[in-house]
């Protein structure tokens, strides 16, 4: 039973709080992030009032809220919540998950923000501590290693990422042994590994793995779950790399519609889907469509991710390539020069994408000279 307090509000009893937290996690598993967030906020406010901010239950709820904001693409808000969580947990449980989980969460946020060096530092620290205090096969250790592999992917270190995921004693085998090959964590690991294969040119291997992941995701999570949408997205990119453009366009069009509906127009995954759909237009010679798509995604990405974010630079590079194919040499050169310069600062001069951007700039100058 709950009764109004002197101010007219209704504090929740412990059973009601537990029910709220359980319901929030159920909606999270279903991919209904906004509903999960609303329930988590209500539980957190009550836990703060009942137990104080530094109580372990309050800290755990605050962590979950930070992760929910992150997964909805609200990275700045999520970062502030997790920093607050870390500050409150200092001195309470130095070697416990109450600092490891938010530190890993911050690392994942930094990946999305393009702050890859900070991401690597945070997640490496968590990985070492988790191995030491929880053991090398603990699910939270495997999650940290998976996140570290994701950092390596973003840094262009795909072979290192593959080794962490699929090497001897890697995350994928451990996850299969503990949870089975249909568990969401196993499927997520397989999707990341397949992306590593794609980036190294192992296209058929990646396609087969992604088809399996998508089939299982649809079966056990549902077609509209965010993990299923991510699997569709990766498979669409595989079709793109395999030059099966019609299949890629159809798949990525579906992904974009679902991402807008369930994640919002400004979520990083939505912007990435817009970018990749633009690539399908570009590769098929649909240059007017490609130009409009890349202009839109560059504007949105600049506004919400930042002008120097790696995703924004990648989309600007594709816009420059579109202008090259349209014969608009000056527009292409101006954009390409800026992308090369900024990408060296953001990604480092040895990152594979920096070489690709520089090669496009050379190609632009050669084509202009050839047609002059």
Give the SSE map.
Blueprint: H1 14-29, H2 33-51, H3 56-71, H4 75-89, H5 97-113, H6 116-133, H7 139-154, H8 158-166, H9 171-179, H10 184-199, H11 203-220, H12 226-241, H13 245-262, H14 268-283, H15 287-304, H16 310-325, H17 329-347, H18 352-371
Helix pairs in contact: 1-2, 2-3, 3-4, 3-5, 4-5, 5-6, 5-7, 6-7, 7-8, 7-9, 7-10, 8-10, 9-10, 10-11, 10-12, 11-12, 12-13, 12-14, 13-14, 14-15, 14-16, 15-16, 16-17, 16-18, 17-18
Strand portion = under 5%
Separation of the first and last Cα atoms: 82 Å
Highest CATH level, the class of the domain at 1-127? Mainly Alpha
Helix content range of the residues, please?
Answer: over 70%
What is the element string, with H for helices and E for strands? HHHHHHHHHHHHHHHHHH
Shape: globular
Gyration radius, rounded:
22 Å
Low-confidence stretches: 1-10
Q: What is the CATH architecture descriptor of the domain at 1-127?
A: Alpha Horseshoe
CATH topology of the domain at 1-127: Serine Threonine Protein Phosphatase 5, Tetratricopeptide repeat
Structural class: mainly alpha
Pfam families: TPR_10, TPR_12
InterPro entries: NLR-like (IPR053137), TPR-like_helical_dom_sf (IPR011990), TPR_rpt (IPR019734)
Organism: Tuber magnatum
Protein name: TPR-like protein
